[in-house]
């Protein structure tokens, strides 16, 4: 039995800027390769992906957990429809838990996405 086929989508702001693409462009080749590998794993596993790679935060927001050497990155995302995983943005994690302002940003992006695309679903 196979589950849904997942599709990873990058969130774009109304002005066309894409926080995930900007984040990836700012990484070195080693870091970018590692982050992309974990994004590929998310696309394969979808909602079945669990720790240590993924975790639920709150308000429908999840985090993709990537570690490169001693640096920890988080890519925030949410599920849309039954097939799409929308990556909102990323940050370098410096504290024990995900900063509330980063979760709030992902929630704002999710609300914006739903406003713009839900009617078209």
Q: Can you tell me about this structure?
A:
Strand 4 (71-80) and strand 5 (84-93) form a beta hairpin. The protein is of the alpha+beta class. It contains 3 helices and 5 strands, in the order E-H-H-E-E-E-E-H. It has one domain: YaeB-like fold.
Primary descriptors:
single chain; five-stranded mixed β-sheet; globular; alpha+beta; 3 helices; YaeB-like fold; 121 residues
CATH-scheme architecture: 2-Layer Sandwich
CATH superfamily name? RelE-like
Quote the distance from N terminus to C terminus.
Answer: 26 Å
Give the number of DSSP strands: 5
Query: In order across it, which strands form the biggest sheet?
Result: 1-5-4-3-2
Order of helices and strands: EHHEEEEH
What is the CATH topology assignment? YaeB-like fold
Indicate the percent of residues in helices: 25-40%
Which CATH class applies here? Alpha Beta
Shape: globular
How big a fraction of the residues is strand? Answer: 25-35%
Give the low-confidence spans.
Answer: none
Mean pLDDT: 92
- The computed structural class is alpha+beta
The gyration radius over C-alpha positions equals 14 Å
Total tally of structural domains: 1
Q: How would you sum up the major sheet?
A: 5 strands, mixed
Concise overview:
Helices cover 35% and strands 31% of the residues. By secondary structure, the protein is an alpha+beta fold.
């Amino acid at each position: 039995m196979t589950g849904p086929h997942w599709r990873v989508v990058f969130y774009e702001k109304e002005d066309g800027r894409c926080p995930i693409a900007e984040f990836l462009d700012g990484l070195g080749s080693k870091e970018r390769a590692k982050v992309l590998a974990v994004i590929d794993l998310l696309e394969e596993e979808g909602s079945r992906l669990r720790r240590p790679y993924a975790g639920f935060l709150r308000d429908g927001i999840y985090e993709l957990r990537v570690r490169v050497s001693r640096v920890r990155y988080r890519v925030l995302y949410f599920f849309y429809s039954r097939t799409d995983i929308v990556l909102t943005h990323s940050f370098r994690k410096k504290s024990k838990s995900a900063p509330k302002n980063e979760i709030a940003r992902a929630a704002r992006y999710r609300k914006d996405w739903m406003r713009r695309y839900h009617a078209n679903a």
